Amino acid sequence: MHIRPVVTYACETWALKETIKQKLLIFERKILRRIFGPNRGTDNCWRIKTNNELDKLIKNHNIVKHIRSLRIGWLGHLIRMGDQRLVKKLYKWKPIGGRAVERPKIRWEDDTMNDLRKMKVTNLNMARDRLAWRRIIEKAKTFTFEVVVP
Q1: b/e per residue, 65-76, with b = 16+ CB within 10 A?
Q2: What are the residue ranges spanned by the domains of the chain?
Q3: Residue 104 has pLDDT above 90, yes or no
Q4: Bridge partners (DSSP) listed for residue 6
């Protein structure tokens, strides 16, 4: 799929809200329906492919799982990064003061850690072993994160 790199540009740093996940899935299915085209049914009528048929065609490698795997890969890169790098300093930086009194915003780190928790990954030091971390990234591409499809 050649549209994914365009849609997921810099997605390693996104905190995914449910509404954004749903919009991404809807967009991906729209593109897939355009690519794979309609089916001729048993009654010789044309019909579009269902969401389940599209999932089978792409082997459940949807765009949200792809983004999650890229974010987990970026987290591993951050963990392995030297402490003097600017990106690592910004990652560890804690702002002075607090947030306004309202519902807390979803943060990238919390969202990514939640994904790892669902995958039962608790030891972040595994990121120092690139091969082990790559296996976790591959697992994230097919792991079921209870995505609700509209």
Answers
A1: bbbbbbbbbbbb
A2: 4-40+47-90+107-142
A3: no
A4: none
